[in-house]
Amino acid sequence: MKILLLLISLVITSLTFAQAHWQVPQYDEIKKVITAENSDNNYDKLLRRFNDLDTTLSDEHYFVLYYGQYFQDSYKPSNSGNNLIKKMGRSVDEKSYLTFKDSLIATKHLYPFDLRALSMGSVLAHRFADNEFATKLDRQLIGILKSIFSTGDGKSLETALHVLNGSDEYVVCDILNVSVTGQRTVKNCDFLTTENTHVFEKGIYFNIEKIFEGYAKLFGKKDNP
Fold this sequence. Notes:
Elements lengths: L1 H15 L10 H9 L7 H9 L7 H10 L14 H7 L7 H11 L7 H13 L3 H19 L11 E2 L3 H10 L3 E8 L2 E7 L7 E5 L1 H10 L7
Parallel strand pairs: 1-4
Antiparallel strand pairs: 2-3, 3-4
């Protein structure tokens, strides 16, 4: 858990200072590299490694995995995540932890980027001293969060954090220990008003353009290329 706390500290520090260039997702380029059979970023190969809890995935791998999910048939912008794991996680004790762990491993491939389930699994693995499993879950959670935080600082429409699921916004706020007091849509962004924070004056912007496009595809409307 110390690694995760260090990440949170680094993220808050980085958001305090202006960054010259954010890594805004270039979806055309992402699509090219994840569909190339011989690419190191071939999506099917990377996803298998991710689901196998491979700890050697790079920051670039996590970036194309998270944002490349947009091009997968399984992508659903309204996905509520692994509800079984979130329900089980509320009442796990020492006796039931192994059952929880086995269930998480068995269902993880169905919800690979569910940040809430990953976070819950990490917390419980640390609580019950399952150190190897905790390290693997921490690596995945950190990898995805670093990808999201590399896209902006969340302080304006132009530097909004790019997400592909609405629930990810609230996990990010939880990670930053930010209390959400309201939500509204501003152009292509969700704006979450916040309190108890010295980093964000009024709230955090999340770019949800691809979520809008995902809904358009889901309902058979013409989407952007």
